[in-house]
Amino acid sequence: MVDVETGQVTVEKLVMAVDSGVIVNPLTASGQIEGGMTQALGYAVCEEMLYDKDGKPREVDLRDYHIFAAQEMPSLETIFVETFEPTHPFGVKAVAEIPMDGVAPAVGNAVLDACGANVDVAPVTPERLWRALRGPKA
């Protein structure tokens, strides 16, 4: 959901299909994917390390740095597309890193589709979206 007045982006559902090789432990594998989706969603819409003019981090604790609380998370769904990886004796593939790649571009494309604004910098903060909606002079 995109609020064009405030620039707030709210992801209501996140679905990820994963080419996972052979799944040995489905519960652990889905937990890895969901954890990565959670981290990637933070990168996509709210988490950003900012630095002062001397190169020191502005965020030094979690008081003013927003990470998602459990009640703020969208519905998560993982779809495993099982294949056999011939280079591994059991046909498995790594799954933990996969979710990091697609969430930010998917959110950016969803925002573009929803309101026509192209925010090509992560995270899609309300200010960045608000400015993108109002053009280059905003």
Q: Would you give an account of this structure?
A:
There is one protein chain. With 138 residues, the protein is α+β, with helices and mostly antiparallel strands. The protein has a single domain (13-134), classed as Aldehyde Oxidoreductase, domain 4 (2-Layer Sandwich). 33% of the residues lie in helices and 10% in strands. It is built from three helices and two strands. The chain has helices at residues 26-45, 99-115, 126-134, and strands spanning 13-19, 75-81. The protein has a two-stranded parallel sheet with strand order 1-2. It is globular and about 55 Å long.
Write the layout of secondary structure elements.
Elements: E1 13-19, H1 26-45, E2 75-81, H2 99-115, H3 126-134
Parallel strand pairs: 1-2
